[in-house]
Amino acid sequence: MRGVKVIAPALIPSMLFIASCGSNSEPSSFTETIEDVDYSFEMVPVQSEQGVFWISQTEVPWDMYDIFLEIVNNPANLAAGVDAISGPTPAYGSVDRGYGRNGYPALSMSARAAEAYCAWLSSVTGRSYSIPTLGQWKIANSEDGTAWHRWNSDNSTHPVGTTEPNSLGIFDMRGNTGEWVIGPDGPVVVGGSFRTPDEELGLKSILTPTPEWNKTDPQLPRSPWWLADADFVGLRIITIDGEADE
Amino acid sequence: MEKQMSKVTRRDFVKSASAVTAAVTLPAWAITENRSPIKIGFIGCGGRGTGAANQALQANDNSVIWAMGDAFEDRLTSSMNTLIGEKGDRAEVPKDRLFVGFDAFQKVIDSGVDMVILTTPPHFRPEHIAAAVKAKKHVFCEKPMAVDGTGVRSVMKSTKLAKANGTNLVAGFCWRYNHPLRATYKKIHEGAIGDIRSIFATYYTSPLWTKPRQDAWSDMEWQMRNWVHFGWLCGDHIVEQACHSIDKINWAMQNLTPISATAVGGRQMHEGLERGNIYDHFGVVYEYENDIRAHLHCRQMPHCYNDNNDFIVGATGTCVANGWNGSAKFSGSSSWNYEGDNPNMYQVEHDEMHEAIRGDRPTINDGDFMAQSTMMAILGREAAYTGGRVSFEDALNSTLRLGPAKYKFGELAMPAIPNPGESRV
User: What ipTM is given for this predicted complex?
Assistant: First the structure.
């Protein structure tokens, strides 16, 4: 593929909070790199009863999601076989709604697309990535920091990492875009978004996907990858393989 | 050889536009068929067409898909299965009314249908509209309605015939059926921002899908299955996609015909055979009388900032209309806000069409604006391809006819990429 020039979101490593895990070695944050395309992002450790996991410091920005889109739609890769790489076909309209691309959070992906993204990311990094469980998300959400919400967003998403992070050093857990997580009964979107009132952010906002989220897709079958009517849905990733390369 | 077509002038466009509101007498059969099932002929069974067919079924519990036609059997079959999944046996078409091939459209029209949905690649639209209107069928046709002036002239003739016949001719320029935007343009036309001085419209988006070539595909099949990348099939992306923005310029200008256009355009990012011969960006200036200009920028490139807005500047105020959700913001002499409902515009198209077929509302004929909006898109493309200042009349009356003279699966040369300053209208 042609080299993808991407701009990493503003990261502030010095602000990272190193979770205390009560064991001999304290887990630290790490930088994941997708070598072929010269892109990297920051993963932050979070301690849970099941052990430590690492969560992306920001919501997944378009810069990162576009790499995936370009690879799964590369004609050479497509020609290699239908099942070689599965992922979103391009939408007819622009799924970013004109809110912004470089540095802005990817949005409108279906749960299936979010999972396909994680599968692809795992295949290129050698680390197992997924979307968080609701339980993991709760632990990483300390309900503090500042947020983009209905009253300050001007009806648009904002570049990731431009608020005050929460006390774990993680940005936009609350607001900007809602985030796919695995709930007890399947994927749900949590945290609230730029469309959610300030007072309803965080765990107060847990949304179960409905057909209304993709009602106006003019095509049939409706896209399994894109939600025509859910511009408030984004994603964040986790891994438990944080120390593999340490 | 077809007989010489008389030259169409800008004045003809303006005249016929003002005649739209003339009273339409309800034909007798529309009343007698009031409660009988509507038989839908579905021609061009891709993703959008299947969506439209589903909306037509949704619009009327008494409607059935009566016949289907497509160039490809696999597309036809998967479309029917999808529709059966949505609407059950109302979409179950017996084998003898499933038609495959380039002549499928005529067989569908002749199968006893009341209305047709025309959703093939745009290249074929003028011929399909002409055949359906001639057979006195109600027509829903997706945008754009043609890819060259020759096609638009045909659509204009069909428009006149549909008016004479009293049959419905409904355009897939979906924003015309969007409630918030209807109210917005009504407000503008009532003078909320004064006389329009200038319009700037954007359609910046990402590239569309491609289908990698398979060994068994002939040139023709490959181009047909990748139709959004071949100029003769789609008209280039300015005609295929940004025509929505151009239609909204035309809407704001109340179907006033522009004098001419100049444009820039090129192919900067598109690479490879899969991306056919179309450009990936255009910038067009439409010149109207009294030095009023409308500007259109459109782009299909990855990793770029996307934007789809109409910036309408009037003598006393401005209106910015969002091209992805139909919301609008007024400033200056008006701060009007829309406060009505916002039903799915793709459904509204078909709801209103079926109401008109039943006689519950006047017959719909979108022909004048859909032909002009399509022609304006073609004009912009021709201005970019040629590098010239192209008059609307010249582009409309051009003998240019894109595509092969005869349709058959087999060899078809890769079409050339036009070079400004060398190509001719």
Answer: 0.85
Q: A102 at the B interface (CB within 8 A)?
A: yes
Shortest alpha-carbon distance between residue B290 and chain A (Å): 33
Residues A112, A180: Cα–Cα separation, whole Å: 10
Secondary structure of residue B365 in the 3-state scheme: strand
How many residues belong to chain B? 425
The answer to whether the Cβ–Cβ distance between B212 and A94 falls below 8 Å is no
* Contact criterion met (CB < 8 Å) for B83 and A102: no
Asked if B324 has any chain A CB less than 8 Å from its own CB, the reply is: yes
Nearest to residue A64, comparing CAs of A5, A140, A2, A137? A5
pLDDT digit of tens for each residue in chain B (425 aa)? 344 446 777 666 655 544 444 444 444 444 444 457 899 999 999 999 999 999 999 999 999 999 999 999 999 999 999 999 999 999 999 999 999 999 999 999 999 999 999 999 999 999 999 999 999 999 999 999 999 999 999 999 999 999 999 999 999 999 999 999 999 999 999 999 999 999 999 999 999 998 889 999 999 999 999 999 999 999 999 999 999 999 999 999 999 999 999 999 999 988 888 899 999 999 999 999 999 999 999 999 988 999 999 999 999 999 999 998 899 999 999 999 999 999 999 999 999 999 999 999 999 999 999 999 999 999 999 999 999 999 999 999 999 999 999 999 999 999 999 999 887 77
What number of residues does chain A have?
246
Q: Rounded to 5 degrees, what angle do the CA atoms A146, A110, B229 make?
A: 115
* Tokens representing residue B182 in the block: 């209807």
CA distance A13 to B248: 48
* Omega within 30 of 0 (cis) for the link into A218: no
Contact A4 B303 (CB under 8 A): yes
Q: Which candidate in A7, A212, A216 is best for mutational testing of the B interface (most B CBs within 10 A)? A: A216
